[in-house]
Amino acid sequence: MLHEVTVRVDDYGEFWVQPKHLVKQYQMTRPTIWRLLKKMRALPQYKLSFLDLSPNLKLVRAKDFLEFLHGQNLAYMKE
C-alpha cells in the first residue's frame, strides 16, 4: 500500500521526511522510530542527516535512514 507524504527536497535531490512519515512508510510504532533515530543521531556519519527546524519540526534524510536500517539488520546477532 502506497502512502502519499509531503517531503522536502534539497538542492541535491535528497528527500527529507518527518518521523511521522517514517512510521507510516515502515509500519513501525512511533517509539520504535524515535529509538532508531536516537541511535542514528549518535553515529558521526549521520551528523548531517538531521534538520531540527523547531522544537516540533524535525526532518531526517530518508536515504540515510534506510541506510541506517540496513546497517541494523541482524545487528543483535553481532553483539
Number of self-contained structural domains: 1
Order of helices and strands: EEHHEEHH
Helix content: 40-55%
- End-to-end distance: 34 Å
Class of secondary structure makeup: alpha+beta
Mean pLDDT across all amino acids: 88
User: Total helix count?
Assistant: 4
Largest sheet: 4 strands, antiparallel
Please tell me how large the radius of gyration is. Answer: 13 Å
Assembly context of the chains: single chain
Low-confidence stretches: none
Overall, the morphology is globular
Query: Roughly what fraction of the amino acids lie in strands?
Result: 15-25%
By DSSP, the count of extended strands is 4
Q: What is the topology, as strand order, of the major beta sheet? A: 1-2-4-3
Please tell me about this protein's structure.
With 79 residues, the protein is of the alpha+beta class. It has one domain. The protein is 44% helix and 15% strand. The chain has helices spanning 19-26, 30-41, 62-72, 75-78, and strands at 8-9, 15-17, 50-52, 58-61. The protein is globular.
Q: What's the short version?
A:
With 79 residues, this protein is α+β, with helices and mostly antiparallel strands.
Features:
15% strand, four-stranded antiparallel beta sheet, globular, 79 residues, alpha+beta
Secondary structure: elements and pairs:
Blueprint: E1 8-9, E2 15-17, H1 19-26, H2 30-41, E3 50-52, E4 58-61, H3 62-72, H4 75-78
Antiparallel strand pairs: 1-2, 2-4, 3-4
